[in-house]
Amino acid sequence: MRSNKRYTNTTFTKRVDHEAGRHRTHRAPEEPAVCASCSAVYSGRRWTTPEGERKQSEPQNWKPARVTICPACVQTKDGAPSGYVYIEGAFLVDHLDEIDGLLRNEAARAAEDNPLARIMVWQRRSPNNLLLTTTTEHLAQRLGHALEKAFDGKVEYDFSHENKLARVTWKRD
What we know:
Structural class: alpha+beta
């Protein structure tokens, strides 16, 4: 029996990451692996910092690590950010050092949980305008939340419909 509906289920299906994660590999790297650029370690199907890996006990089936490039380094090299943080307003001019320190500390705390979450570029577009690009959309959200919590102001979050991309704007005059 044929339906008279003008729409189908595919009309309402959410398509996430339309570009199919072009910065991600199709298969998981062979374990263990170490990044040649940043020294991140891939073990147990997870990227970790080298310090965190040393704290763990020696694995039972030890084999030498393969040298590779982690997804965050590939993404940085290709210049394909997943998050943008726009910082605007006269407040930035007077408090640049405090904002800089807060953002660097927050990015370092985020890297403890996920070493692939990094700030890619710091771009000073004008005296009262700063643009940061990040490797993950979650880091962009986290930086916007930290700015709002520490310095008040107004923060806005925008997300791309099809791709995994976040744009965070923080303003304070």
